[in-house]
Amino acid sequence: MRASTVLFLLLLLHAASAHYIFETLIFGEQTSTKAVRRPSDNGPVHNTSSPDIRCNVDLRAATETVTVDAGAKIGFKLDKDIYHQGPASMYLGRAPGTAAAWDGSGKSWFKIAQWGAAFRPKFQFIPLNKREFVTTIPKSVRSGEVGIVIPVGFLS
């Protein structure tokens, strides 16, 4: 199956949390910065009931659509290593029309990966000191336009 995808970034941050921008899309053996909706800055969204919580504020539109096969590698690279403790996860969402026009609203999101905590040799969240988050798109994902989101929650 093929998933024709405009990928965009949604950052879900706690109000006093981390400051990162997921700026590069990783798909298969390729990368793209043009297929990412990138916020103008890396400040957190303080009003969690605002639509800005989905994609942050002042987004630069994605200018590229990429095609990714189900079963292929997908992920993001950050602008710097994560330096706050906390989990991360990755979701896909079926766009109601074109992914390029979708604002990320609705209930079509489903989780495809998560990075939690390791307990040995000591307790530590797996995302700490990472710069890339990559997983595999499930082979059961049917063709169509989808978005990808990597919400992160960092503990202060």
What key phrases describe this protein's structure?
single chain, 156 residues, four-stranded antiparallel β-sheet, three-stranded antiparallel β-sheet, 1 helix, 3% helix
Structure description:
This protein has 156 residues and is mainly beta. 3% of the residues lie in helices and 35% in strands. The chain has 1 helix and 13 strands, in the order ββββαβββββββββ. β2 and β3 form a beta hairpin. The protein is globular, with a radius of gyration of 15 Å.
Rg measurement, Å: 15 Å
The proportion of residues in beta strands is 25-35%
Q: Taking strands numbered 1, 2, ... along the chain, how are they ordered across the largest sheet?
A: 3-2-7-12
Which bin fits the share of residues in helices?
under 10%
Mean pLDDT: 79
| pLDDT < 50 stretches | 1-18
Series of secondary-structure elements, N-terminal to C-terminal:
EEEEHEEEEEEEEE
Per DSSP, the total helix count is 1
Give the structural class: mainly beta
Instruction: Please report the total strand number as a whole number.
Output: 13
What's the end-to-end separation, in Å? 41 Å
Tell me the major beta sheet: 4 strands, antiparallel
